[in-house]
Each structure stands twice: as C-alpha cells, then as structure tokens.
Amino acid sequence: MQQLDRLFILIGDWFHSLLAQWLPEPVVSAIGMLLSALIIMTIAAVTMLYMTYLERKVVARIQDRIGPNRVGPFGLLQPLADGIKMFTKEMIVPTQAHKVVYNIAPVLAVTPAMMAFAVIPFGRDMVASDLDIGLLYLIAVSSVTEIAIVMGGWASRNKYSLLGGMRAAAQMLSYEIPMVLVLLSLVLMVGSLRLSDFVDVQTVPFILLQPFAFIVFLISAAAEVARSPFDIPEAESELIAGYHTEYGGMRFALFQMAEFVAALGMACIMVTLFLGGWRSWIIPLPSWLWFVIKTFILINVWFWFRGTFPRLRIDQLQALAWKFLVPASLLHAIMTAVLVTFFPLVKDGQLVVQGAEWLTTTVVYFVANVVLLFVLMLLYRPYVRRTVRQLRVATPAAAARQQEVQAA
Amino acid sequence: MTLEQGIFILASLLMLGSALAMVTARSMFVAALWMIGTFAGVAVLFILLNAGFLGIVQILIYIGAIAVLILFAIMLTPDVMGLKPGPRYTGQWPLAAVMASTLAAVIVLLLVRAGNDWHIADAAPNVTDFAVQLGEAFMTTYLLPFEVASGVLLVALIGALVIVRDE
Description:
- The complex is a heterodimer.
- By secondary structure, chain A is mainly α.
- Chain A has one domain (89-401).
- In chain A, 72% of the residues lie in helices and 1% in strands.
- Chain A has helices at 2-5, 7-20, 25-62, 78-88, 99-115, 134-142, 145-155, 159-190, 195-201, 206-209, 211-224, 236-239, 249-274, 287-308, 314-342, 357-394, 396-407; strands at 346-347, 350-351.
- The termini of chain A are far apart.
- Chain B is an all-alpha fold.
- In chain B, helix 1 (3-24) runs antiparallel to helix 2 and helix 2 packs antiparallel against helix 3.
- Chain B folds into 2 domains: 1-82, Four Helix Bundle (Hemerythrin (Met), subunit A) (Up-down Bundle); 129-167.
- Chain B is built from 6 helices and no strands.
- The N and C termini of chain B lie far apart (63 Å).
- The interface between A and B is medium-sized, with 27 and 26 residues.
C-alpha cells in the first residue's frame, strides 16, 4: 500500500539515480523537470481525448441515445479517429485574416490551460512545483486564456467570430470576480496560498464546511471555461461556432483541446480546494487514485450540466454574475471573516481543530452557509418574481394565452 | 554569462522589442497585443528579482485584467477589424519627439553618472513569506493609502457608470 501510494515518486527517484550515474547533478534535475512537465502535458492531452468520448457518451445516455459505438469496442477508438481526422485536414486560412495573430491564437489558448497543472498536487508529495503563491498563480494563468480567445475572434475577420470573442472577454472578466471572492474566503480559513496547505487542512473537505462557496465556484468555473450552460462564446445556434468559426483542422483541434484541458484543470482545482485533494475518503486507495476518482466525479457533474440546462442568454449571464454572484460572494467572504475570528481552523500555520472539534466547526460553518443562502433567497425573491413575470409575457404563446384570459 | 543574465537579456529584448512594435503598429488591436508582450517581460523581470508574488500579480492584473479591458474597449470602436488604419503620424509628433528625447536624455544622464557603481537588490529580500509581509504592511502601516487608492478606483468606477448611463 505504502509502495503503491508512492509508486510514481519511486519511479521518479529510480530514474533520477539511473541518470545520475552518467550525468552531473544540475543536468539530471533539469531533465527531471522537463520530463515531469512532459508527462503532465501528455496525460492532460490524453485525458482530454477521452473526456470528449466520455462527454459524448454521458450526454447520449441523458438524451436516450447510445453515443459513439462504431470505432473499436464501445466506440473507444472514436477519439483517436477524430484526432487522425483533425491531423490530416487541409490547413485553410481565410484570405482576409490577420495571418500572424490567426496562427498564434490557438497555441496561446492551450499554453495557459496546460500551465495550470504545474502547481496542482496530484497525490501525496506529487506536485511539480509547490509554489507558496500557487492559488494566485492559478488565477493569473487562467485569466490569460481569454486573450487567446479574443485574438482568435478578431484575427478571423468574421462577424460571428468577433462577437464570440467579445462575449468570451465579457463573460470571463465578469465571472473571475465571484470566483476570486470565493477563493478569498477559503484563503481566510487556511491562511496560505500554497495548494498543498489546502489539502493538509482538509480533514473534513471544505465542500461540507463551505457548501455555498462550492456552488458559487462551480458556477463561476463553468462560466470561466465556457462550459455549458455558459458556452455563449460559441453558441452554435446563434454564432455558428463563435470565436473558432473560421478555424479548421489542427488549429480548431487546439482550441477544442484548450477548452477541455481548462475544464479538466478547473475540476482538479475544485478537487484540491473543496474535496480534500488526494485525501482518501473511507476506502484506503492510493492518494493519486483518489484524486483521479474525485476529478472524474466533478467532470461528470459538468457533463450533466451540459445535458440538463438550456444555454443562458448573454444578458441573463451578466445579470447572474453581477446582480447575484458578486454580492453573494462578497457577503460570503465577510461572513467567513467573522466565522474565522470565532472558529479558526489554522493559527500561525498550525491546524488547531482536532478530533471531535471538527464536528462543531463543520456544523457551525455549514449552518452559517445555509443561513446565508436562505437570506439571499429572501432578498432576491422580489427580483426573481419580477423577472419570471416578464419572461412569461415575453413568449408569444404566453401573450396569446393572456389575451384569451382577458377576452373570457 | 550566467543563466540569470541570459534570461534577463531575453526578457529585456522581449520588452523593448514589443514596446517598439507596439508604437509602430498601425492596427490598434495588434498594438494592444504587443503591449501584452511588454507586460509579460516585466513579469519575468519581477520573478528574476526574487519577487514571484509581484510577477504573478503583474500577469493577473496587467495581462489578465487591464489588457483584456483594453482589447474589449477596442472592440467597441467603429473600426474594430482595423481595416482602415489611421495615419502613421499625427500633428502631435513634434511634441512627442521633444518629450521622448527629454526622457532619453534623463536616462542617458543617469547611466553616465552611475558609471560602474550599480546597486542591484532583490525586490523581495525575504522570499519565503513575501506575500505575508506585503499583506501585513497593507493592513497596518499602509492601511490609509491602500484605502484611499481603493476609494479613488471606486469613484472612477461610479463615474464611468454615470457617464455612460442613459438619461
């Protein structure tokens, strides 16, 4: 068990000592760093391939279909077939496009998505670079993606692409704020920006302590990586394919990859921050295996979103962010600050809650979160009612029905 | 040449090159993209000076927020696509030339006076808890300037809202 838990670290150490026989130490560490980066990137890319497969299967099941089932057993080779198709397609650049920006944008979209994995602890002692400002690094890196999307939208010289790019910029800017505010309340609890500290503290996962924060983060993260129901930058019924309308072949595949890798990265971040990272729940499995299981549970939640919710309109999306999520997450941060004063988790870098104290702490935090949600629902009731009434009148069928009622 | 010097030279070339490309670019959108290159170079310099926190904040605020806002603002101008680029020189060029040469003269003067006497210090001497120290300084010694600065930003935000609001 111990051996299995440290499997990848042992392999790494063995390889390190093997190389050290022939090469000087600085070269070996440089090779080690490059190799771990390469391995993480490869795993991310392969996982992304099979995420597309899983998404098609899950959404197909929700819609009472079978999904991909022709290539290989259970359609398992479908992603590979798609990949080969993308590779062999002709490279087409629109004549009016700004060539340089058009070609750089897809590459620039993938880079930040991949960079996020550098600070995520995948298992016990399994983190490529345990930065003391890891959380800030994650936020910074994920905010670069939108530039690539805007670049792609602008360089294509296509109205739909441009609109998609603008929507992406507006959406990501808006949803970054509630996301960061929610992270602020978690940082208040942990007192550190290092991601491994977050895992160390979570004897009880933060999803139980801060369920409201988790919900807000789940919504903002879905919007941040433009997943359904927030896939407005590429709403196919309105914008053809949004910012990547004019992209084909491998460039399109890179955009697609950036999106899925970013979603995977977000799932990893949520596992680390809210689900206790690599800590095992009940069944003692190797830490990295638990991390993978938790990540795939969260990814599945996003696939359910895709199969369940209709896409929001752009103004509804902005209203949700600015009128509800921003004030709500601000209130939540203030509430957490008060809670942390009376029920601290960490004092001077030391975990102060032990054993049975976790029960009281968890109950206090949970109840406070539920009360906040209840208060917010009360506050927003008039607004929601008014909006629903407006929506009812807005549809032609409803208007006709109202006329009938009035006539009778 | 050490590795750090090599990275410094590369980052400086990136900064200066993108700055030059930015002022000579005819399309506003492309100019904004070059500006992002300059910001990235500054972030690298911060990290080289042991101030990783400032480097990350540079990326977060300047690239992630300000540059995106500028791109977004360009999207709202009439010639979004940059199909009709403006003239390369406007009537203000003599004034700009005077300003630029004054600044260059000051920099050259400083360089000459410094001679071989260079003082290079880490931007963040105590690396391990730089963010903690910065946070404490903002919440104690520099609380008033910090709050005043955020007040100014708030006024700017509300002012912008009032200006664009329909009557």
